[in-house]
User: What shape does this take?
Amino acid sequence: MDSSTGFLDFIFSDSPKNFKAAYVSLDSEPYQIFDLLLKEGRFTNFFSRIEIYGNNLATLLSQLPRLEQDDYNASLLREMIRAFALSLLAERCDDRKSRSAVARIVLSVVKLSDPRGTLGQFGVRLGALPGILRILIAEGHIKNLAVTHKGCFEDLVSEPQAKEKWVELIVDLCKECRKHGMRPRATDAIEFIRRLGWKKNTP
Assistant: This one.
């Protein structure tokens, strides 16, 4: 039996159920997560229904803190997942459903990461992808992250380039909002992002 079956069956399912089998499969062969991007057939299949299969992956990743052990294999798996997510952000997402699925995956990966200088590149990459960042901000995910995973949030916006791009997007979203619509001083940028107290629909 293919040891990757549990993971792939979970991802390419309309109603995935066996979290543990999928995790055990992925833990035994962490590199297989890249098959979703590097194997042409699976890449095409994954992106053709990313609103379903991407959300399956995000759901699985959100379960990892409960299932993982703190050992070398777990560290390797986390690193593979982070590298996968960065590669995923390089793919083109042309519609809101695909951007929303990618946003969920990235959010799950950020929560899994060690909040000690490892997330700056995610923050910069997201700053260059306003369609995805807009979803994370407008649906309240960034505000919640700042509360539940403070270290991850602060690391995510630690790079000057990330701060600049995130603030630009927030100001643009709040053009008509007197409370948030004015650009903050550079020293206040993280607090400005952290204190997003609003949600709004995005196109």
Notes: The mean pLDDT is 82.
